[in-house]
Every structure is written in C-alpha cells, then in structure tokens.
Design goal:
It is built from 13 helices and 17 strands. The chain is α/β, with parallel strands linked by helices and about 350 residues long.
Length: about 350
Amino acid sequence: MSWMIYGASGHTGQLVAEQAIRHGQRPVLAGRSPERIEPLAARLGLEYRIADLADPAALCAALEGIDVVAHCAGPFSATAAPMIEACLATGTHYLDITGEIDVFEAVYARHAEAERAGVVLLPGAGFDVVPTDCVAAKLAALVPGAIELDLAFKAAVKLGPGTVKTAIEGAGFGGKARIDGEVRTVPIGHRRITAGFPSGPRMVTAIPWGDVSSAYRSTGIPNITTYTVVPLGGVLGKGHRLAAPLLRSPRVQRAGKTLAERFVQRGAVAKDRRTEVWGQARDAEGHRVALTLTTPDPIALTADAVLAAAARLSGEQRIEPGAHTPSTAFGADFALELEGVQLSEPVSG
C-alpha cells in the first residue's frame, strides 16, 4: 500500500513512523517543516513530501498516489478540516488520532460528502478512542436498548506538545456529556462514580473525552459520560469555574500553547505502563453490564492502531465509504487484535 504520515516529525508521528519500519512498512513522511521532516526521512530511509495545511493545492499535490493518510498533526480543531478537504478532493482515505469532541462531530457531519467521494473518514484511530470504542460497542451488543453508558480509563503517559496544546485549547470551555442524544456543555467534574478497574475500584471524575461523540455513533446510546482518575477530582469543578474566564482568554491561550511547544519534551514510549478501561451500560429496567479492558501504554497502542487501520483501509476488504468510528469501520473486536489488549468477561448487575 501507499500511505502517508502527516505530522511525522511530531511526538506521535515519529513513533508511528518508527513502528512502521519495524513492521516492514515504508510510509511517506509529510509535514510543513522541511527542517524537521528531512532529517527524520533521512534517518529512516523514507520518502518525504512537504506541504502546508494552509496551501490546498500543495496539499492535494502531496497526496498524489497516496491511498491513506494518517493525520498526526494536532490540534485537530485547526488541522483536521484542511486535510479532510484535500482527501475528499483526491479520493484519499483519512484517519487521525484526535480526541476532540467537536472534531468528531464535524467529521461525522461530512458523512454524505465522504460517501459521494468514495472516501473513508476515520477520526480517533489511536488511544483516543480505539479501546473505549471497543468497550462501548461490546456493551451495546450485551445490553440491547441501553439508555446510559459510562466509560472510564486509568492511564499514565508522557504527553507530547500537541496533546498539551489541545488540552489548553479546551480548558476554558467546560466539560461535555451526551444527554438525551445531544452533546451538551456541563461543568468539568460534574459527576464522580466508582469504576471497577482490573487493578481495583477507583473513584473517577467526568471529563470531556472523544467517546461522548464517537460512542453515540457506534452504539446509539443516548446518555454517555466519560471519566478518568483525576487527583483532587472532588474540587476540580469548583476550581475550574473560578479559572475558566481566564483560561478562555486569547492571550492566555496563545501563551500556554507557546510554552507547550517550547518546553514539553517528546518522550519515549513507556512500554511497561498499562492502561485500564472500564465501561458500564444500563437499560431502562436498571439491568447493568460492565466490561474492562487493558492495553499497553497509550502511545504504543496508538502507533499499533494507526498501522492496523491504515493497512485495513488500503487492503482488499472494502470498508464502506463515509465517516466512521473504529468499531463501525472494522468491528467491535478491532482493539482486541492489537498487541497486548485484553478484554474481561462481562459482569452483570
């Protein structure tokens, strides 16, 4: 296959490229900065192309002969739309590693365009949201007619500059939850529950996570809340309400992103770290089913998932054109086919 990693010089993009080499694949590397892309391409012995997302003609030219682009250049609120435009124009399948709810919603809104273009649009093909989407899809099958879905994860990972900039961008605008089928703004930390992780129960706090959008598309469950382990989660909401106006300031946003780019280090994958996912679905009669899943380090899983998704999108098995989640594209077992991912037996209650 012929596929491209755009944003290849970033934290995750480099890891995806290195993983591809280890698996005998030779993706084309791409980005807007020759100073970053050229040395990486020389070190890995790969072809490269330079194109700025702000230059549609150059971007379309860079996609010539490319079957699939793995878009790894965040924040995706700024970068996804121009890349998708180029993919629709050139008939190139698109995947990214976003976790941004608004980006998911915007991509899903282009489903009909993608169908007409014969293109698959697959946001969230990394840790955001492959493992949680697997759990969501499995639970929807186990609890037909579910009306409520809770998803939580517990992870320790060194964040790259792009991820930190995305977090800064959303910090002033509160949380998100799916309520009665609609994405609604809620206070950060508006709910706390106990999640039964494989390592033991932990209190988790509501956060805005991509599954608020993607799990609804995968399952149709109308009420979805996403959580993680947050130190001092009980005071998160109050503190955020006080700080939110400051965090929304354009000046604070610019300063925070500049600091992230300069001082957040691109670290190595911590292969010994495991991530745990817990999910629970409930129907109108109160019947509940819970599942847990364990994965490798989130960045390692992301690299593995991107390679697997790119291979499937350019393979012989046809994926119906349109905007997809991981499970609607590849089935609920997609995450389980990745290295080191294990699913528990369901627990009913």
